[in-house]
Every structure is written in C-alpha cells, then in structure tokens.
Amino acid sequence: MEILPDIASLINSTLRISTPLIFAAMAGLFAERSGVIDFGLEGKMLAAAFVAAVGSYYFGSPWLGLILAMIACVSLSMLHGFASVTHKGDQVVSCVAINILMIGLTTALAAAWFGQAGLTPTLTDEQRFLEITLPFADALRDIPIIGIIYSDILSGHYVFVYLAYLCVPIVFWIVFKTSFGLRLRAVGENPSAVDTAGINVFTMRYKALMINGVLISFAGAHLSTAVNANFFREMSAGRGYLALAALIFGKWHPKTALIACLLFGFTDALQIRLQGVELPAIGTIPVQLIQAIPYVLTVVLLAGFVGKAIAPNAIGQPYVKER
Amino acid sequence: MAAAVDKSRVPWWVSNLIVPLVNLILALLVSALFIFIAGENPIQAVKLIIYGSFGYLDGFAYTLYYTTNFVFTGLAFAVAFHCRLFNIGGEGQAYIGGLGVFLVAINVSFLPVPIVWLLAIAGAFIFGAGWAFIPAYLQAKRGSHVVITTIMFNFIASSLMVFLLVDVIRDMKQMGPHTVALPKEIWFPTFKEFAALFGIKIRYSPLNISFLLAIAASFFVWFLVWKTKWGYEMRAVGHNMQAAIYAGISPYKNIIIAMCISGGLAGLLGINEILGVHHKIVAGFPAGYGFTGIAVALMGRNHPIGIFPAAFLFGILYQGGSEVTFDMPNITRYMFVAVQGVIILFSGALENLFRPQIESFFVNRLKMKREI
Q1: Does residue A308 sit within a domain?
Q2: pLDDT at residue A323 in the model
C-alpha cells in the first residue's frame, strides 16, 4: 500500500498542472471553431498572469485582478480580430506579434514598475487565491480508497482547478447544443453559407474571440495568483502552444481536448517526479532531458501517430464578402 | 474603407516604400507610448538610441555586428515564408547551428584556415538545416503545423544544448556552462584588427568578417528564390498549392527544401557568434536573435533588398537600446522585445490598415498631375 499515496499525489498534480492547459484549449476551441487561428494563447496567458498579479497587488483582491486580466485578454483578442478579421491581415503573423509583444511588454513593465528583474512583488494570502478544502475532507480521510480519492485527490485545489473541469461540459453544451454553437461551427466551416443565411460572419468571429479572451484570462490568473504568488518572466513556458497542440490532437472537440490536456498534465507531473530519481537499468536521467519530455510528446502527438486531425474548413482564411 | 484602387496603377514606390514607412512610424509611435508608460522620456530615448548606434565608431561597429545576426535570421524566416511556412524556430536552429560550427571547427582545426572556415560554414548550415528537417518533414507528410513544432524544437534545442554544455562538452576546468575555446588561429578576423591597419585604435568590437558572409547570403537567397527553377517552384507552392500540384510541382519536396534552407541560414548565426565573437559555445548565445528575424523579414517584405535595411534598423534598435538601458534605469532590453512585437503587428498583421487610403491618395494625385 506504500505506492497508493504516490499515485494519489501524481493524480493530484496532474489535475492541477492541466488546469491552465484546459482553459487555454477551450479558449482556442472557440477561436478556431469560428475560423480564426489562435497561436496567441501563449501571449494572452502571459498578459493575464501579469495583469492579474499587478491588479491583485494594487487593489488587494485576486478577483479584481482576475477581472482586469479578463479585460486585458479580451482587448488582445479584439486586437487579433481587428487585424485578422476586419483588416484581413495574416492570422499567424498577428498571433506571433501578440506573443512577442507580450513577452517583451510584461517583463519590461514589471522591471520598470517594480525594479526587480522582471518579477512582480510577492502577493500576500489575501491577495491571492488559496487552496479550497472540500467539506469533511479531514473527517473522511481515514476511509480506505474513498478517503484518498476525496481528501487527497479531489480536495485542496485552487478555485481555478474546479472551474476548469466545470468549464469543459459547459463549452461542450454551448458549442454542440445551442444555436450559437451551431452558428459558431458553421462560420468556421463554411462562412459564405452562414452569410447567405443572414448571419454576420464578422460579428460571430468577434463574439468567439471575446469568449476566447475571457477563458484564457483564467489560465493566466491561475499561474500568477494561485499556483505562484507573483508574475515572473515568460512564466507561461510554452503552455499556450501545448494547449493548442492538445486542441489539435483532440480534433477541436472539448472532450478529446480535455483528455489531451490531462495527458500533457500527467507527463509534466511525471517529469517533475522523475527529476533526480534513479530508474532501474537507465540510471538517473539528466534534468534537462527530462524537462524536454512534454515538448517531445507534443511533437510526437502532433505528428499524428494516433490519427490525422482535420481542422475546421475555413480556418486561417479571412472572410471576404463577395461584391 | 476607401474604395479599392486598381493595383496596376499604384506606383511601386508607394506600395513598397511609403506604406511600409507609414507602418514603421506607427509602430515607433506606439513604442514611444510604452516607454512613456514605463516612466521615461521617449524623445530622450530616441536621442540615446541615435547616439549609441551612430555617435561613435565602436557603437557603429556594434550596430553592424547586430545587423549581421539579423540578416541571417531575417533571411531564414523569409525563405520559408515564400513557401507560406512560418519557421519561428530560428532560435533553436541557430543554437544547433552553433553546435555544428564548434564540432566541425574543433575537429578540423589542423587544416589550412580558409578550409576550416568553409567547413565550419557548411557545419553551421547542415546542423541548422537538420534541426529544421523534422518539423519540415512532419509538416509536409503529416500536416503537423510548423509553428507549433518549430516552437517545440526551440524548447527541445535549448534543453539539449544545456544538457550537452553541462554534462558532455563543457570545459571541465571551468564552472560555467560553456565549451573550451577554439584555437586562436581559426578565429574570424575582426573589425578591430582591420581598423588597426589604418592606425585606428578600437577597444573591442564584435564586428567581424561574418558581415561579408551576411552580404553573400543575401545574394544567395535573392538568386535562389527569384532566379532558379527551384525558387519558382517553391513560390508557386506558397502561392497556390493546388495549382502547383496541378502543374506537377511536388509540395512535399519544396516544403522540406524551403525549411531546410531556412534552418541552414539561421544556423549561420552560429558562425558570427562562435567563430567571430565568443570562440566557444556559450549557453543561450542565440539570445532572441531568431525571433527578431521574424520582425526583420516582415518589415523587409521578405526580400533581401528590404531585409538588409530592416536588419540595420534592428541593429540600431539593439545597439542604441543597450545605450538606453545603461542610462535609463526603467528600461530593460525586454522593452525592445516589445518594440519588435509592435513592428511585427504593424508591418505584418496590420499592413493593410492604411494601404487603401495611401494608395488611392497617390493614384488620385498622379492622375490630377497628368490631367494638368
């Protein structure tokens, strides 16, 4: 029974580590289902992390920080829409611009305002989100199996973790069960048909981008005001790209994207676990190589060894109304 | 939106000079706003940038040294872009290219110096190309988006190089993560030695003959992309893949070749940094030059004639920028990363923001002139 707590803690960290990936993948789902490529998840996540940390530091409330982060991310999504929907600029270039801009601006402003090397000040407990202990978690701990599942795996997470897993069925419902979702998917597959039906393609894409901005802000706030107590330089560490890979691997579907996010989360949890551990027959794997595992996994998954992914038909193409 | 203008009546200098210039000015105005938000005076910052990059000979040499790096990474991005591939993995390809330079140079250093140099250049190119090959292959054969795979390969390259520098090829007598130095005979001649011939004394200058290699690479890219059959095929694939397939052009072959040449050009950054400046592999030597190449290429409209001045402009921003960071405590080098982002936004994604207005303005003016 020695191994049980180990497995419990691995699952626990998987749930936690997957959280920003899930928010980002769901955010990307809305944009890409509407036909707008979103490589800018990375930059928006950084922006959210920075704004949430700074906002929470100045106003003393992590919720206020989260709201400011939402405003920042929605603005960036609108900028992406302005460039690539309204002005029909190249969508990938617009995303790359947002990412590089945010890597630079967040770190530069952190340095300018707080004088530390791209860090924001450490938040106090009142200024950040804390772990939530579910009711009776302590009382139920001693019950075999159920106790471990409830008290060690499900209890004691940040609010964002619960929100993330709540968000997936909601996204599924919106995208596949409502008329808004039907229009959203249609705009991404065949915009001219939607246009003929009297629905404004541009408005639909802007709406999708707005939801995209709100969702991605949770990912950033989770990083800087929950898991960590400050913002630091490039703290998103490629998670935006990992989430996008999960989305593609999950074939732009919330359920399969969730599974892909959990897989990435698990690999990352395992990676942290394996550092410095002596493995039978292999010995200790150098830390640098272990850290590369999630990135290698991304490439392997994207290579489509488990089936080819088919993107929404109109993805990446600006919509031009026929004259 | 202004009425669409007949493209054939727009003079070339309007679409290729005036519009990019207006976009650049917009980008710089937004950047000035950032500097203001950071609590410094933008006009003072501009003065420092101009002084730092032109004001004295050492500074100017630094500007040209940065220009060299940006020409390599800018050309790299541009070549892939003509095939509609977004190679944002220049950073990793340059890193691995540097490994190629070092491994070749240290193993053949007994040969005559010019041959060592040629082999090292080949090493840089082949290693960089090799690192681009896997994303290229996956894009061509499996449709894995090259943006994600090249970004992942940047992370992987960085992990791999740190591992090699810590555990395998580190100079074991030293603590820092870097290799032993290459023998002095095969170092690239620097601007310092060149200036000394004319009796001009310079304290230190990283500028070296790699600058000439950058010029050569520009010609090479121009010739390859616009004057060869392969360049034509590659551009055809980029413009309209279906039409290219119909014309019997293989998209797979062209995607892979374009990415490999792109990676090879990024690898040449290793020549400037290792044969020219550090003379050993230092952890993290690509220092963001690979990403800057994206901005350089987009600003230079993916043509060597545009890339060279764009690279020079970024050289000014980098060198002048380091002058700014010395004098203005609130500005760090990351501010100039943000400036790059703004430039990519305005000269890439938003390049059509004012294009219709500007073009119709000039077309109407020219028409009026003719009527008079």
Answers
A1: no
A2: 47
CA dihedral sign, ordered A100, A291, A247, B88: positive
B281-313 pLDDT, tens digit per residue, is 998 898 889 988 988 998 888 999 999 999 999
How far is B188 from chain A, CA to nearest CA, in Å?
32
Q: Is residue A82 part of a domain?
A: yes
The stretch B141-165 carries a mean pLDDT of 90
Compute the distance between CA of residue A200 and CA of residue A196 in angstroms, rounded to an integer.
9
CB spacing of B152 vs A241 below 8 angstroms: yes
The chain A residue lying nearest B353, using CA atoms, is: A87
Structure tokens at B211: 């600058």
Specify the long-range contacts of residues A209-212, CB closer than 8 Å, at least 24 apart: A209/A30, A209/A31, A209/A34, A209/A36, A209/A77, A209/A78, A209/A80, A209/A81, A209/A85, A210/A74, A210/A77, A210/A78, A211/A27, A211/A30, A212/A27, A212/A28, A212/A30, A212/A31, A212/A38, A212/A77
Who has greater pLDDT, B259 or B145?
B259
Domain ranges for chain B, please list them: 1-40+329-372, 68-311
pLDDT tens digit sequence for A227-239: 888 899 889 888 9
Picking from A90, A236, A322 by the largest number of B CB atoms within 10 A of its own CB, the best residue to mutate is: A90
Question: Token pair for residue B358?
Answer: 């500007």
The pLDDT value recorded for residue A206 is 94
ipTM for the predicted complex: 0.85
Q: Confidence class of residue A281 from pLDDT cuts 50, 70 and 90? A: low
Report whether pLDDT(A176) > 60.
Answer: yes
More confident residue, A319 or B30: B30
**Is there a contact between A238 and B155 if contact means CB atoms under 8 Å apart?**
yes
A94 interaction partners in chain B (CB closer than 8 Å): 345, 348-350
**Residue A2 confidence (pLDDT):** 59
Cβ neighbours of B132 in A, within 8 Å: none
Asked if A97 lies within 8 A of B345 by C-beta distance, the reply is yes
- Confidence band (pLDDT; 50, 70, 90) for B204? confident
| Residue with token string 């100079």 | B171
Domain that holds residue A104: 8-236
A-contacting residues in B 293-322 (Cβ below 8 Å): 294-295, 298
What pLDDT, in 10s, does the model give residues A111-127? 888 877 778 888 888 78
Burial class of residue A15 in the structure, from the number of CB atoms within 10 Å of its CB (0-12 exposed, 13-18 middle, 19+ buried): buried
Give me the residue label for tokens 């939106």.
Answer: B1
Read off the pLDDT of residues A65-107 as tens digits, 9 standing for 90 and up.
999 999 999 999 999 999 988 888 888 889 989 999 999 999 9
Q: Is residue A169 part of a domain?
A: yes
Give me the number of domains chain A comprises. 1
Option in A98, A100, A296 nearest B340 (CB): A100
Query: Is CATH 1.10.3470 what the domain over B68-311 is classified as, yes or no?
Result: yes
Tell me which residues of chain B, numbers 155 to 174, contact chain A at a CB-CB cutoff of 8 Å. 155-156, 159-160, 162-163, 166-167
B147 touching A, CB under 8 A?
A: yes
Look at A96 and B86 and tell me if their CB atoms are within 8 Å.
Answer: yes
The answer to the question of residue A81 being in a domain is: yes
